[in-house]
Amino acid sequence: MPRLPLLLTACLFAILPAAIVNAGDVTLPGTTRFDLAARPDGGAYRIFVVRPDRPAPAAGYPVLYLLDANAVIGTAADALRARQDLEPAVIVGIGYPTDQPFDIPRRFHDFTPPTAAANLPAQIAPGQRTGGQTALLDFIEQQLKPRIERELPIDRRRQTLFGHSLGGLFALHVLFTRPQAFQSYVAASPSIWWNRESILAEEAARPVISDGPVRLLLTVGARETRNRMRDNTAAMAARLGASRDIEVSFALLDQAGHGASLPLSLLRGLDTVLSPLPRGLLEAPASGQ
């Protein structure tokens, strides 16, 4: 039987049902997940761990703790695999036991300070719980980090926290109250407006970081004008940039709205916290070269 021309064969595969051509679920190489309940009676978190395919440095791997992992763990894993020019690192995604990109009620609780009902946005459902910031940080410090460090060689001097929107607010809260928890922070489109900008009081009262400086990347989309998000973020970057114990970078993301700023900030964050490898150590040339 003669072979079909390559073009015709490709066309046939293109019109076959997806279930035939693409049987089975897609997996992320080097990525595992497990659920871990916060002590003593907290809810469960879905933890995603992206392991490098390269040996650890003598001091261990740098590690990025990533909030809202259900939404962006795939982006993070693929970006790190593609960026062979960056040093290998571990990504630990903190998400929730759901197939949705976000668990909205859990986010409103975990990433916020205690917030009076009068200060909640109108679209939030009555009875929404807030004030879970301390419990979430305790979970990360007391349960999650020790488990990750038992399984992988981690450089505790190279730990980064990434959060977007309310997650960015949480990252700033950690920086201003327990800055020693991480050495780098990425606060993407942080919700500085939340609770009548109560985060500014934490900024004003923050302790001086004696073993710093720590690094902070603040990002925001150019189109994020609602709740003065763009202006508030730029103003905070200017204030903190004058300090000696925080090394501040600021990125205004051209044409980006609130949703687009999440993956764009993640990619910018990887470039900020991971060092480029010396050219002689690259395992392969970049694609297309």
From TrEMBL:
Signal peptide boundaries: 1-23
Lineage: superkingdom: Bacteria
InterPro entries: AB_hydrolase_fold, Esterase-like, Siderophore_Hydrolase_D
Keyword Mitochondrion recorded: no
SUPFAM superfamilies: alpha/beta-Hydrolases (SSF53474)
Database matches in Pfam families: Esterase
Keywords: Hydrolase, Signal
One GO molecular-function entry: hydrolase activity, acting on ester bonds
Family according to the record: Belongs to the esterase D family.
Record's protein name: Enterobactin esterase
Lineage: Bacteria, Pseudomonadati, Pseudomonadota, Betaproteobacteria, Neisseriales
